[in-house]
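Query structure, 312 tokens:
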């Protein structure tokens, strides 16, 4: 087992690979404990990320001759770009439910829901179309089932009476594990459908492979048992991390890569990430330390015996 920090992550990965190091498993930051975050699931549960989304940041640029605003052209660079951006926002990428680890996540949650919903989640082979449509209506669950789109920057013009010569915007996609970077770019190009809009990749990272989460997978089971030891038999399910971690530098070190942070989240806590009043409770902070103690201890024994106790 290895714990890594962000600083020097790439160099750490290079060094370990150059030495031929192979690890049993890796645990990085990632998914958390969710309490009343998904409609219909009234019990808390922990999600261990067995994969993570890729990303691509695209620069969209429109270039046209400049001029004075008193004699404007029919279309300006800003207007053309705004139309393109609106088209991308209003036409989300296709629903990928059933083609990634999110299926196992929701089927594993079936014991936590009431009878009618339990039947649905236990038979996703029949009800997947209905479930995927419902998931797409919620901001948190929608991110699990498709490549998401966020327009994060927009710039055009420097003076109120001058028609600008160019306008640009940045679109950030978080890519579902079942899609590729090129598929995302091709989809955007099709939706924009305007050759005047230039597309350039600023940065990208491919989605990660899905790590195993079976009963005999040492890494996953060690993390699961450590969670249950500290959080008292909490249900643990595999899932996909919608953000990105430093595990991209360690993909060649092991097939067992997991992403979990032992933070307890309710629905109102989700917007706090990188937002206002980001915080962690005192008890949860204690549990976090306790969790990592158990992970390190359990990683050094042949068989992990599940037990439960009070916090440190």
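Result returned for the query:
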């Amino acid at each position: 087992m290895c714990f890594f920090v962000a600083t020097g992550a790439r160099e750490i990965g290079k060094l370990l690979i150059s030495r031929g190091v192979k690890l049993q498993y890796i645990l990085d930051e990632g998914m958390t404990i969710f309490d009343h975050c998904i409609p219909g699931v009234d019990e808390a549960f922990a999600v261990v990320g067995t994969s993570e989304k890729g990303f691509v940041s695209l620069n969209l640029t429109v270039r046209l001759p400049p001029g004075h605003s008193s004699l404007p052209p029919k279309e300006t660079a800003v207007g053309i770009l705004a139309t393109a951006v609106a088209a991308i926002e209003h036409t989300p990428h296709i629903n990928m439910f059933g083609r990634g680890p999110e299926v196992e996540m929701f089927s594993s949650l079936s014991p936590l829901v009431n009878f009618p919903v339990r039947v649905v989640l236990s038979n996703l082979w029949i009800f997947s179309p209905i479930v995927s449509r419902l998931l797409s209506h919620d901001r948190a669950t929608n991110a699990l089932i498709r490549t998401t789109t966020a327009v994060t920057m927009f710039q055009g013009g420097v003076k109120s009476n001058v028609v600008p010569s160019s306008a640009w915007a940045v679109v950030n996609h978080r890519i579902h594990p079942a899609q590729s970077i090129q598929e995302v770019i091709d989809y955007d190009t099709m939706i924009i459908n305007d050759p005047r809009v230039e597309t350039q990749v600023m940065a990208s990272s491919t989605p990660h492979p899905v790590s195993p989460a079976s009963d005999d997978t040492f890494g996953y089971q060690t993390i699961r048992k450590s969670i249950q030891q500290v959080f008292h038999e909490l249900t643990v399910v595999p899932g996909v991390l919608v953000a990105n971690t430093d595990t991209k530098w360690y993909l060649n070190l092991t097939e067992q890569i997991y992403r979990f942070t032992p933070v307890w989240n309710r629905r109102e806590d989700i917007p706090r990430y990188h937002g206002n009043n980001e915080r962690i409770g005192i008890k949860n902070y204690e549990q976090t330390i306790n969790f990592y103690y158990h992970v390190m201890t359990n990683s050094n024994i042949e068989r992990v015996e599940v037990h439960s106790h009070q916090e440190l």
